[in-house]
Structure formats: structure tokens, C-alpha cells
Amino acid sequence: MAIDYQSLAVKGVQALSPYQPGKPISELARQLGLDPAAIIKLASNENPLGPSKMAIAAAETALTELCLYPDGNGFELKQKLSQRFGVGADQITLGNGSNDVLEVIARCFADASSEVVFSQYAFAVYPIVTQAIGATAVTVPAKDWGHDLDAMAAAVTERTRLVFVANPNNPTGTVHDSGAIEAFLDKIPQNVLVVLDEAYCEYMTGEKDPDGVALLSRFPNLIVCRTFSKAWGLAALRVGYSISSPTIADILNRVRQPFNVNSLALAAATAVLDDEDYLQRSREANTAGLKQLQKAFDEMGLRYIPSSGNFVAVEVGPHAMGVYQALLAQGVIVRPVAGYGMPNHLRVSIGLPAENEQFIDALAKALVAAGQGA
Ligand SMILES: *Cc1c(COP(=O)(O)O)cnc(C)c1O
Q1: For residue 374, what pLDDT is reported?
Q2: Do residues 179 and 208 touch, judged by C-beta distance below 8 A?
Q3: N or C: which end of the chain has fewer CB within 10 A?
Q4: For residue 136, what is the enclosing H or E element?
């Protein structure tokens, strides 16, 4: 008798749908017979400046040692991060992207008997890692597209092991200031771990802006996750990290793959931390691009969710998939977010000024085309 191998997968995994990444430029070029150079991708919150020259140089130097295993403890990178944030190197856990760290956290601290709390419209990786380990996902309805922190605190039960908070959140761009995060942490029992995912924090510079690292000394149940993929411009290399108590970091270190961050990634991330100029330019380009897009949306009469990230979710109406397709036909890749339960929105990443302009022009045409098609 034929075995249904799908039925052998653990229950949570059977119910999973795979993470939907942004469409690669090469794929759209193949599908439409377009020149890849004519396509713009504003779909994966990538840094439009291109990588830091210092990062490229460091990765190139590391090429001569491709035959060697990486430093499994990431000594130099941890030293740099430790100095930058005034934390111990023993508080840092490195990951193959911060997604890797998020998954390791879930595997270390939750199992089939646990509940994991996160918000509606929160980053897609939280439900994936929760279901993959057979834990119960508790999705708390959002408030004005953002996390309802009071409701999330109220959703914690005796079975809750983990709470994921994306701040700013992707794909909504919503954020809570440091005071709100602190008040939230005050309500969470100390035996429940809070993962504060700050993938976009480098874009923020205001005084009240959230800084999870500053809260670590008060909250031993806090794990702060950050990444080199966004403002630091190293998405291809996959490097992220968490900062937590040494005890939690020690646990995470037992479960992570021994060489989860490769040598090129370690070298480039270590080098880019010295490139403050690059970070500054990333921030400035993002602030300007965000203004440019939000102003254009205002002029077009489109609603959007005010964003603190390097992307913005714009409401284009019930024909959002048609608008997406009409943008693709013009060589502009953005991100549909129906999978997040936001069927009327598209998420667009901030590009260079000319890219943003090209997107706005294409969007105006796409709205007409999609409206007529319906
Ligand atoms: C992009 C993003 C990450 C980072 O993912 P990496 O694996 O580090 O590339 C983490 N959390 C959120 C909310 C993100 O949007």
C-alpha cells in the first residue's frame, strides 16, 4: 500500500505554508524576457545603496580561506558587538540571519505543550517556527495595524513560553516607543521569554525610539534580535544575532548549528561595523525615500500605514493582486501581503530616489490597468 508521506510530518508542519519571499529579479527577467538591468526590486526590504565597500573588501580577503571552517564562536564579531553595545560577548548569539536565531529560540524554549504569543500581521517567521515545533500559536488581534501590547500581555497563560514582538513590525512598519515596550515587559511574568525583534532599529534615531538592549539589565527574560540584513546591507550573507542574559545565550549556543555563520559573513559583518558613514547614508536615504513615497501616496489619495522601517504598506484596494501583476509587467517588483491577511495592501521597500519615482509612475498606470481589468 502506498504510504502518504505527508501524513508522517508532524502535525504543525503539515499545516504550514512555506515562507513567500520577494520575486527575484532574475525570475521576472526570465518570465517576461526583460533585461534584468531594467527591473527594479522593492520587495524584500533590501538596502538600495548596495553593500558597504569595507564589507566587500573584508569578504574578498576572506575568500583565500574558503577551505577552512569558520570560527564557530565568531570571536571577532562578538568582540565588536560587545564593545558597541556595552554587553558581554557571552550575551551574544550569532545566527545565519536573525531568522536562524528566532528558530533556535523557539526550539530551545517551547515544545508541543507550549503556547507562543504574537500579533496579527506580525512577521511571518513567528508562526512558521511556532508551528514547526508543534507549539500552539496564539495570534492577538492588531490595533491600528500595530501590536496591541496590552492584549498581548493579557493573552499570556500558564502555558505561554514565548512572546514575539517585532518593533518596528514587518510588514506594517508600526512601532512602539521605549516607554510602551518597558510597560509591556513589566506585565509579562519573568518565566515567559520576550523576543524583541529589532531588525529595523538602525533606521531610527529619535530619543524615544525603542532600544531593547538598554532594557536587558532590567528584564532577564528579554532576548533582543538584530540583523545585518537591512540597514547594514548584508542580506545575502545571512548574519544576525541576539543579545540576552548569558544563561539564555548559553542555552541557544547548545542548539545552534556549530558553524551557522560562514567566514565571509563573519568578515563582512565585523568590517561593516566600522563603516559608520555607510550606516548614516542608509538612514538618510531611507528617511528621504520614505518621505518621497508617502508624499506621492498622499497626492494620489492612497492610504498607507505610517512606517518606521525601510518599507511602507500602501492600500491599493481589493484589486491588489492585479496591481501587483500590472507592476510586474512594467518591471517593478513589490510584495503582496495577502498572506499576512492584508489583501488590500502592497508592501513596497524604499529604493533610491529614481527607483521610488519609477515605482510611483508604474503604480499610477497599474492602478488604472487593474481597475479596468476588474
Ligand atoms: C528582515 C527581518 C528580519 C531579518 O531577517 P534576517 O534573517 O536577519 O535576514 C527579522 N525580523 C524581521 C521583522 C524582519 O523584517
Answers
A1: 47
A2: yes
A3: N
A4: strand 136-140
- Note whether 161 and 281 are same-domain residues: no
Q: How far is the CA of 122 from the centre of ligand 1 (A)?
A: 12
State whether the beta carbon of 98 lies less than 6 angstroms from ligand 1. Answer: yes
Residues belonging to the chain: 374
68 and 196, same structural domain?
yes
Averages of pLDDT over runs of 10 residues in the chain (374 residues) are 88 84 92 91 97 98 98 98 98 98 98 97 95 95 98 98 98 96 98 98 84 96 98 98 98 96 98 98 97 96 96 96 95 95 97 97 94 62
The model's pTM: 0.95
Of 220, 240, 272, the domain-final residue? 272
Measured CA to CA, the distance from residue 336 to residue 348 in angstroms comes to 9
Based on C-alpha coordinates, what's the Rg of the chain?
21
Domain that holds residue 334: 7-38+277-373
- With beta carbons less than 8 A apart as the criterion, state whether 305 and 313 touch: yes
CB 171 within 8 A of CB 311: yes
**Confidence (pLDDT) at 205:** 76
Q: Is residue 1 part of a domain?
A: no
Nearest Cα to Cα of residue 355 among 282, 292, 277 = 292
Ligand 1 neighbourhood includes 44 CB (under 6 angstroms): no
The β-bridge relationship of strands 345-349 and 335-336 is antiparallel
Residues 6+ apart with CB under 8 A from 247: none
Count of the separate structural domains present in the chain: 2
- Residue 170 Cβ inside 6 Å of ligand 1? The answer reads yes
Q: Distance, CA 98 to ligand 1 centroid (Å)?
A: 6
Residue of the nearest CA to atom 15 in ligand 1? 170
One domain, residues 358 and 268 = no
CATH classification at residue 15: 3.90.1150.10
